[in-house]
Amino acid sequence: MRDTYHEELDSLSERLVEMTRLARHAVARATTALLDADLNAAQEVISGDEELNRLDEEIEASAFDLMARQQPVARDLRIIITSLHMAGDLERMGDHAVHIAKIARRRHPDSAIPAELRSTVLEMGHQAELLVIKAGEVVSERDAETALELDSDDDRMDKLRRRLLTRILDPNWQHGVEATMDVTLAGRFYERFGDHAVHVADNLVYMVTGERPKDYETES
């Protein structure tokens, strides 16, 4: 009976890792859609979000079932509660990828991103992928030390967004209101994607140590 219980706990982590894989694929394809005006890629991201939503719902149902049947305490309860939080963050990462894809779909057959900003947006897409890959690794390995690195890793995404804003606020910006809105929104969605990856890592630290990241860093 206890073996089955721990298998169910492990299954929560396995589903979370699968969600990180799906979120990475979604943001990669959304970036392709945005930069290349690729309507097929945009549609793939939008329709593929159903799988992330399904896994989020599965984790929620499993978590509540475990709490009802097993009445877990201490570390096991932390695993269940933090899994719920992480699943919610990963589901929202998928939503942000969908928002990026919808910008691309709305501007098709044109690209929503002016030529001089394409390299910055491409870098934001790559940074988003790196963040969610690392989030998946720390969940899989329950690696609190590496999880602490994600906050500083996310600083790069924040800098890239500021670079976008600097360009569109420049007096020489000549791409009009629509492009301004598209770039602003895309930058915000990438930034929020990164923020949720950090939240996943923060919850992993709490799951493993029982301490919030700032407290854990202070004592380490």
The CATH superfamily is identified as: Phosphate transport system protein phou homolog 2, domain 2
| Strand elements, count | 0
CATH class: Mainly Alpha
Q: What do the pLDDT scores average to?
A: 94
List the helices and strands in order: HHHHHHHHH
How many angstroms separate the termini? 37 Å
CATH architecture: Up-down Bundle
| Rg calculated over all Cα atoms | 19 Å
Shape: elongated
- How many domains? The number is 1
Please explain how this structure is put together.
The mean pLDDT is 94. The protein contains 9 helices and no strands. The protein has one domain (2-219): Methane Monooxygenase Hydroxylase, Chain G, domain 1, CATH 1.20.58. Helix 1 runs parallel beside helix 3 (74-107), helix 3 (74-107) runs antiparallel to helix 8 (176-209) and helix 7 runs antiparallel to helix 8 (176-209). It is 85% helix and 0% strand. It has 220 residues and is an all-alpha fold. The radius of gyration is 19 Å and the shape is elongated.
Which descriptors apply to this entry?
mainly alpha, single chain, 9 helices, 85% helix, Methane Monooxygenase Hydroxylase, Chain G, domain 1, elongated, 220 residues
